[in-house]
Amino acid sequence: GAGVSQSPRYKVAKRGQDVALRCDPISGHVSLFWYQQALGQGPEFLTYFQNEAQLDKSGLPSDRFFAERPEGSVSTLKIQRTQQEDSAVYLCASSLGRAGYEQYFGPGTRLTVT
Amino acid sequence: SQQGEEDPQALSIQEGENATMNCSYKTSINNLQWYRQNSGRGLVHLILIRSNEREKHSGRLRVTLDTSKKSSSLLITASRAADTASYFCATRRQGAQKLVFGQGTRLTINP
Q: Is A2 near chain B, with CB under 8 Å?
């Protein structure tokens, strides 16, 4: 079946622009996660949804970052007034249940802020 | 900040040899997972080991977990060129849903 998909795959934004990154999880997966991966580093957690509820947003680096999953399926990560330090790969993952299940990752969106 | 430390940061071996990567972490965990990431691609789940397990196998992969030392190792036997990738360990703490990743080991298999 289809895996996690993300769009766009690549995004170039000028500093100060707003961007929106989309994630389509695997159908039926309850949990959805966003991670940020800087070059040469491991992914770092941003936020977590269980269905439409955002249960953990402790990893969002600033109030410029906002995520939503209004119908418990597709999720959007929005970054307002982008800065150069926001340049990274943004990974989305989904999981079947709440605990003990592996997370399936999408290919990521590479964001470059110029 | 990342919890895991992986060792070595980079590893280069000849095809057919075994590759061992180590991961250490700091807090009590529910499970530990290993992922592979090819250049410019997403993460692929390899294996999950629970905190009450000590060893797990999947094909050419062998994972061990020592909770007393807060460490894990991933062994890839009979390596192939296609195994060239970055390998990450990730831990899930008790009561938490998020994964905390290490910085990864870049593995290169030379033909």
A: no
